[in-house]
Amino acid sequence: MIDEDFDTEFETRLRITLSEMIPKLAASTNALDDQLVHPADLVIPLQAKSSRRVRRLVVAVLAVAATVLGLTVIARRDADELSPADTSPVSNDRPPQWYELIRPSLPDRFSHVALTLATDSQLWFVAISPGDAKTLEIQLAAGGYSTEATTTVDVTGEWVETAQGWSVKTPAGLFVSVACDVGARGRDFAGPPNYCDMASTGAFGKAEIRAVVNALATSLTTSVFDQPVGTPQSETIDASAATALIAAAVPDQQLIGDTDWGQGGSDHIYDFAKDPARPDTSVRIVQGVYPPPPLTDQTAWALYDDAGALWVFGSGGVGIRISTTDPRPESMTRLDQLARDILKLSPAAPSENLPLTTVGQTTTTIAVTLPCETGNAARVHPEACLYVLAIGDFPSTVANRFKVAFEDLLAINGWTLVVDQVPEFPAAGTVIRIPPGWTEPLD
Asked: pLDDT tens digits, residue range 385-395?
């Protein structure tokens, strides 16, 4: 049996413990600052002559109160610590709805995807395999169909084999098309070759493409168009600035194609060539790649029999693919730099003093303003600019128009004068350089 002296000592020690513990508990969290009671208010004052039963009851109440208070503070502290981790990352890192829709049907190697077109009846995607530059072009459509003859029919639907992939129309009306390419067109082929089927960098053949089509066709229905799944990311790189950079990197080629395959510039392709019938250099800029790949710090070219291709990535999920039918080391070095130069462009605004790669095996920097300005005949520019040749232009008329020396115009573009002729002078539509010191024409 606990005697009265022991009760008194236990009560005194408990009072001291509570007086020390409660302020420490209060200091461990900010959540309870307005709710904690003062130790003096919590400890019940006892009369010196209280009975033993009353003393024991008060001691028990004090012990329970201390326990409850401690557990409450700990619980609220833990809740505060967990709250940011449970909410912010989930909301910030949750994949887009369109990504969750399509990713389960794709092989692991096609690790990065972009939505490039979204309407009430069509969805287009680009799936990228960074290691070998292969790209899957994926199209979903409600009620779509192929204009080519049916190859085969099975339970999935009506199948059509294409030059670079497969398409199928399901009985429910969903059209699925998948093609694989690297963006290059070899010189020795009558049509676009199927580089994806070549084993030199890890083949992704027709059978594998058909498996992707089948996975999409059997896991999705036309109901994917009932609700919006997201929107493509709009273009963030100024098109005129990108065109000028490419033209400067391949001055012996002319622009033969400038196509936006997506919405709002989400999938922009620039084709340059010596022969207008077949691109030599293709530059593709894709926006909104998910998950955003790490910024490219080392480029790996995928080399084929007569072509090369690579992907590089910048901030904000921008992906740039460059394909060439000139896989010589000096060509790939120049185009590798071109990709990085494009990534340096300010979003949706031309940039001054851009690093440009010149023809040949050396790299220099040319300050440019993009494009050449007009309208102020009194304004002289100390930097070079880029001009698109018009029908009827000649080297002499261009030099006169911008009031630059004829010899300087030839030199900056790498042209030569042979018996009063400039044999390298390109056709209308080609982007050329205007040397520093040019004056703005009136129109």
From this structure: 777 777 788 99
| Sheet strands side by side (includes 281-286) | 254-260, 267-273, 281-286, 318-324, 308-314, 302-303
- How far are the Cα atoms of 12, 27, 68, 76, 385 from residue 73, in angstroms, in the given order? 24, 10, 9, 5, 68
Q: What is the DSSP string of 124-135?
A: EEEEEETTTTEE
The conformational region for residue 17 under phi > 0 = left, psi -120 to 50 = alpha, else beta, is: alpha
Please state the pTM of the whole predicted model. Answer: 0.60
Alpha-carbon Rg for the chain in angstroms: 35
How many angstroms separate the first and last alpha carbons of the chain? 110
List, for residues 420-439, the tens digit of each pLDDT value: 888 888 776 666 778 888 88
Owner of token pair 């969750």: 100
User: Quick one: tokens of 48?
Assistant: 């010196």
Indicate the pairing of strand 267-273 with strand 380-381. unpaired
Instruction: Outline where DSSP puts E strands in 171-265.
Output: 174-181, 254-260
- Per the listing, tokens 């129309």 go with 169
Distance CA 265, CA 238 (A): 10
